[in-house]
């Protein structure tokens, strides 16, 4: 399991959507947005294209590489025909490269991301012909016709190309994460204190900090410092969530329209995270240290998946509010 990717797919989209449920933008804010320079608009467009590339991948190329290495390669080691074959993300190889190139063609720099995006695109183009050939081979069950010989012949080059893509993908996500964290922090610091916008931005910012802390905790569940950091950022999420809930309740009372503001998902996430803290303190994960990517099953791996699922639902609710 690639923990960085687990969070990357859910972290990168939220920071540009910070208007609170029922909030009206101040006139000064509206005027500032109206006067936004063409360069700033282009940068937003470019950033959002990068975000789209990341969020379109349900399975990361890092996960696809891991799955091929652990699931497909063993089937090709013998002389008998493989019983099954699957090439993941083939449809996204060319699409992702095209979207990256579209973003790169926008003539305004995003220094945290551009170089990594260019390298990611180049690696995808190297992977493309190998992926397509093996995908067609797998879909047509060519391995039953030639005993898997074609797959064996291509597998080494395919795995090397996929591994390079996975490496470049991670660098791309790091750039996105750095940019996203900076934008989120800026939005939080600039929001009017004690406003719905302030608390919403705070939840998103501290949520991102918490997800980073969670990555460290899942890698080293018996590290006291990792647990302390996770507890601290979760408390900050809970504090801003409480402020958000109060503002949403006030707005609902004034407007006469009910709006939960996503508190169901938020409370579910906080509750799950508090259960995780209790499990760590109770010693549930004693002996489970690092190397999660090599494990097909473990209690800490399951905990990581539950955390990611709950956090993803919070981000989805903020990105697609119901009110």
UniProtKB/TrEMBL annotation:
UniProt xrefs under InterPro entries: DUF3829
Signal peptide boundaries: 1-19
Keywords: Signal
UniProt xrefs under Pfam families: DUF3829
The protein's name in its UniProt record: DUF3829 domain-containing protein
Species this chain originates from: Pseudomonas prosekii
């Amino acid at each position: 399991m690639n923990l960085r990717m687990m969070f990357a797919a859910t972290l990168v989209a939220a920071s540009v959507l910070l208007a609170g449920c029922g909030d009206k933008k101040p006139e000064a804010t509206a005027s500032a947005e109206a006067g936004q320079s063409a360069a700033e608009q282009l940068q937003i467009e470019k950033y959002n294209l990068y975000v789209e590339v990341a969020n379109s991948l349900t399975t990361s190329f890092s996960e696809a590489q891991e799955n091929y290495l652990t699931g497909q390669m063993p089937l090709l080691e013998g002389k008998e025909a493989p019983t099954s074959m699957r090439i993941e993300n083939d449809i996204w190889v060319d699409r992702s490269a095209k979207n990256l190139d579209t973003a790169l063609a926008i003539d305004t720099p995003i220094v945290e991301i551009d170089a990594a995006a260019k390298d990611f695109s180049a690696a995808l183009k190297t992977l493309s012909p190998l992926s397509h050939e093996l995908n067609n081979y797998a879909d047509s069950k060519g391995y039953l016709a030639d005993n898997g010989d074609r797959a064996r012949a291509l597998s080494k080059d395919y795995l090397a190309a996929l591994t390079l893509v996975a490496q470049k993908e991670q660098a791309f996500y790091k750039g996105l994460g750095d940019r996203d964290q900076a934008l989120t922090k800026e939005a939080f610091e600039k929001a009017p204190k004690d406003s719905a916008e302030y608390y919403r931005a705070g939840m998103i910012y501290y949520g991102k900090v918490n997800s980073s802390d969670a990555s460290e905790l899942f890698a080293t569940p018996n590290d006291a410092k990792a647990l302390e950091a996770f507890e601290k950022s979760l408390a900050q999420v809970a504090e801003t969530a409480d402020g958000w809930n109060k503002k949403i309740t006030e707005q609902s009372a004034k407007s006469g329209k009910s709006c939960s503001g996503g508190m169901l998902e938020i409370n579910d996430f906080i509750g799950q995270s508090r259960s995780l803290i209790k499990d760590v303190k109770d010693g549930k994960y004693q002996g489970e240290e690092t190397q999660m990517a090599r494990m097909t099953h473990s209690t800490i791996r399951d905990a990581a998946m539950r955390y990611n699922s709950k956090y993803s639902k919070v981000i989805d609710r903020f990105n697609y509010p119901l009110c």
